Amino acid sequence: MPYFRDREQLYQVLDALFTRLKADPVLCAGLSEADFVLRFKYTEPQGQVTIDLRDHSFTWEFGETTLKSDLDMSQSADTAHLFWLGKLNVIRAIATRKVVSRGQVSKALKLLPVINNSFGLYRQALKDLGYDHLIPVEKARKPLSRKIRLFLRRHLRGLRRANSDYLRLDRSTIPLVDEYRKTEPSFRELSLPRSSPESLWDFPVV
């Protein structure tokens, strides 16, 4: 089941987010330095928003517009929701076609350091709109059992011993040469007992 019930709810959440982004002087300044037009196209539900970051501005329009975009990013509304929650790997999403781009993707990737600081604003916007159910509950990590703690303790002790052995090895005297000298092999003749061919067939008869 999609996170957003319809287009109006999707636009409401995005508008609340962008309003908070524009009100933050640091985030707004970082975004407005991009100097290009970005369009997000959504499915399930269908919709789009065009963001104008030219001339040190930050404005947005929902739905159809005559404004030409420099970069289009197409994705599902659920994928966009996970992105603004900070739970989407953008590079992997583009590689796996969860996010389809048309234009210079490098421009959008330059905004990631700024956008990463806005994930908290998205969660706050959802809370203020009464959409707490759209915020995933972070599961608390279970404490390690006693057996696992003992295993890790013994394993780490072994690593410490191995490290000390490596340090001892580093202090060993190992002869080194600056260049390799090629030497010719030498052979030494060995004196072996000789026997006549007849003696080879001289076996005792049983």
Characterization of the model:
By secondary structure, the protein is an alpha+beta fold. Helices cover 40% and strands 13% of the residues. Strands 3-2-1-4-5 form a five-stranded mixed sheet. A hairpin with a 3-residue loop joins strand 1 and strand 2 (47-52). Helix 1 packs across helix 7. The model is unreliable at 163-167 and 169-173 (pLDDT under 50).
Which properties best describe this structure?
single chain, 13% strand, 206 residues, alpha+beta, 5 strands, 8 helices
Q: Mean of residue pLDDT?
A: 82
As residue ranges, the low-confidence spans are 163-167, 169-173
Order of helices and strands: HHEEEEHHEHHHH
What would you call the shape? elongated
Biggest β-sheet: strands ordered side by side in the sheet: 3-2-1-4-5
User: How much helicity do the residues have?
Assistant: 40-55%
Biggest beta sheet attributes: 5 strands, mixed
The whole-angstrom Rg is 35 Å
Please tally the helical runs, counting DSSP H or I stretches of 4 or more residues: 8
In total, the number of strands is 5
- Derived from helix and strand composition plus strand pairing, the structural class reads alpha+beta
What is the beta-strand fraction?
5-15%
Distance between the termini: 95 Å
Question: TL;DR of this structure?
Answer:
Helix content is 40%, strand content 13%.
What is the element layout, followed by pairings?
Elements: H1 7-23, H2 25-32, E1 37-43, E2 47-52, E3 59-62, E4 71-76, H3 77-84, H4 90-95, E5 100-103, H5 105-109, H6 112-115, H7 119-128, H8 146-170
Parallel strand pairs: 1-4
Antiparallel strand pairs: 1-2, 2-3, 4-5
Helix pairs in contact: 1-7
